[in-house]
Amino acid sequence: MTRQRWTNRTTFLLAALGSAVGLGNLWRFPYLAGKYGGGAFLVPYLIALVLVGIPLLIVEFAIGQKMQQGAIGTYTRLHPRFSGLGILALISAFIITSYYAVVMAWSLLYLFASVRVEWSANSQDYFFNRILELSASVNDLGGIDGSIFGALLVIWIAIYFSVWKGTKSVGKVVRYSVPLPVILLLLLFLRAITLPGFLAGWEMYLKPNWTALLNPEVWTAAFSQIFYSLSLAFGVMIAYASYKNDSDDIVKDAWTTALLNSATSLFAGLVVFGVLGYMALQTDTPLVELAASGPGLAFVVFPKALSLIPFPHLFSLLFFLMFLSLGIDSAFSLVEALNAAVLDRHPHFSVAKVALIVCLAGAIAGIIYTTRAGLYFLDIVDHFLTSYNLLFVGIGQSILVGWIYGAEKLRRYINEVSEWKIGKWWNFAVKYAIPTILAMLLATQFSKDLA
Ligand code: PHE
Questions:
Q1: Cβ of 71 below 6 Å from ligand 1
Q2: Whose CA is nearest to atom 7 of ligand 1?
Q3: pLDDT for residue 386
Q4: Can you give the pLDDT at residue 174?
Q5: Which one of 14, 314, 374, 400 is least enclosed by Cβ atoms within 10 Å?
Q6: 261: Cβ below 6 Å to ligand 1?
């Protein structure tokens, strides 16, 4: 069987961008910025982007495209001892898809509830008690929540039909699902800047609190955000790149993906904080408090803010539609990473069948998060995955490429096929900077968790 191919370069770019741009941009980035120093957070964020994010994205695009395999096959071809690293990356991918789909299921329920802005009276109570029906502790599973489960099925069906014909169906979906949320985000931006108080929100978002940079936690957060946001260390970008021809351009695609992804994060922050500024004014709540709401931002604080603006139904609908369309291509990119690995080993299996099995497995694994203790599990899993597994795979990958396969050898290949050339700085980043920084972060995280 010949390998699946993207129909053209734009399709690949849209797919890669769709994977990168997701809930992480809309939900994770703004709350991290709010929590970790406002505008000052941009310093570690941009350092992480240039020093680690872009070099590693170039690595993943290059090795996938050169080896023409998904993560496991690619690592194995780089060195047979490293197949385990691919397995680790794919385990993370599987775990993330299973909870990512659940978060999308919540937003689907919110989308339905938008018609009557059901959460307007008490958005905190609505999220924890009506949607999640959260139990008192992680030990109290308390059965599956029917509506979340139902919504989860709908999400998985949507994911399945996005990947069931591999690159062909993905290519069709991303043509719509990547531009749509951007348009919706623009509409919400226009709404935000026509609300009183939005400037105060922006000030909170962008005004640097430099002392935050002394806190090592801020740095770990920035680096893990870059990993998460660029879908690195999950085998996703490797799989996507493996569907390109081995003579295609690499460097331009990596820069385009990375820069557009970060631009979307910054822009989403403007929307989120603009609306929060308005909410602070309306409810007489200090902005700091709203901004520090953490993960509850998307489902507690922001919905509340939406309920306060004129035409709340319309804007809630637009917001959750954006949430869903933003998330779907990240969710199915993870499924594609898994499918690619299975199909590499069994090229004669049908794509549709492999996709079905992977989707079913992901849906079943997600059931744990539909229980009344679901949120607790989600927090634990998210923490371990984003703080350990990603860093670990990142280190392994840079050692494999930098030292074992040879950074210079890969750089020569990259420069041969790419219009924009990369300099020797990239070798330095891959061989020294990335493993050192990531190892330091891993140690910091570990000592913090032990304490
Ligand atoms: N990059 C996605 C986001 O920012 C999440 C994601 C992680 C997608 C890993 C695929 C792989 O939401």
A1: no
A2: 231
A3: 74
A4: 96
A5: 314
A6: no
CA distance 32 to 268: 13
Cβ–Cβ < 8 Å for 60, 70 = no
Give tens-digit pLDDT for 294-310: 667 889 989 999 999 99
Domains of the chain, earliest start first: 9-450 (1.20.1740)
CA of 231 to the centre of ligand 1 (A): 5
- Report how far residue 335's alpha carbon sits from residue 343's, in angstroms, rounded to the nearest whole number: 12
% of the chain at pLDDT higher than 90: 76
Mean pLDDT, range 79-96, rounded to an integer: 94
Q: How confident is the model at residue 445 (pLDDT cuts 50, 70, 90)?
A: confident
Tell how far the Cα of 176 is from the centroid of ligand 1, in angstroms.
18
Cβ of residue 29 lying under 6 Å from some atom of ligand 1: no
pLDDT digits (tens, 9 = 90+) for 378-389: 888 888 887 788
Q: What share of the chain is helix, strand, coil (3-state, %, to 5)?
A: 80, 0, 20
Give the pLDDT mean for 69-74.
97
User: What sign does the dihedral 344-350-353-355 (CA atoms) show?
Assistant: positive
Question: Is any atom of ligand 1 closer than 6 Å to the C-beta of 30?
Answer: no
191 phi/psi in degrees, rounded to 5: -65, -45
- Three-state DSSP class for residue 246: coil
Q: Would you tell me the crossing angle of helices 9-20 and 312-345 to the nearest 10 degrees? A: 110
ipTM over 0.95 threshold: yes
- Ligand 1 midpoint to CA 26 (Å): 11
pLDDT band at residue 133 under the 50/70/90 scheme: confident
The DSSP secondary structure of 262-320, one letter per residue, reads HHHHHHHHHHHHHHHHHHHHHHT--HHHHHTTGGGGTTTHHHHHHHHSSSHHHHHHHHH
Distance from residue 230's CA to the centre of ligand 1 (Å): 7
Q: Rounded to the nearest whole angstrom, what is the distance from the C-alpha of residue 232 to the centroid of ligand 1?
A: 8
CA of 19 to the centre of ligand 1 (A): 6
Mean pLDDT computed over 107-116: 94
